[in-house]
Specification:
Elements lengths: L7 H20 L7 H12 L3 H8 L2 H8 L7 H11 L3 H4 L9
Helix pairs in contact: 3-4, 3-5
Length: 101
């Protein structure tokens, strides 16, 4: 049986959905991914190379520095990556959890 929109059953289903989502958010929160790992994930998912990131980040040596955690993301890089790869800005603005020197 399907619940019709704007019916008592549909409203009940909406309330139950909201309760389940609130319970899961409280008891089973999902952390946002590391920004660099998110970039690498999108690169793999979209079949991109370092050269594909040059327009978004800068010269290839800068891309390598970012991908190896040796350089942080600038505001312009964050904007470009968000617009070009669709990575949420809130993920990209985080401080990377991995540090390399």
């Amino acid at each position: 049986m399907m619940a019709e929109v704007d019916s008592p059953e549909g409203e009940k289903l909406d309330v139950l959905t909201a309760l389940v989502e609130a319970y899961e958010a409280k008891h089973y929160p999902i952390d946002m991914p590391d920004p660099i790992e998110a970039i690498k994930f999108e690169m793999e998912r979209q079949g991109l190379s370092v050269n594909d990131l040059v327009p978004m980040i800068g010269k290839s040596n800068r891309v390598y520095e970012v991908l190896t955690h040796k350089r942080g993301l600038s505001l312009n890089m964050i904007r470009n990556l968000h617009q070009s790869l669709g990575i949420p800005a809130e993920v990209l603005i985080q401080i990377s959890t991995e540090t390399h020197t």
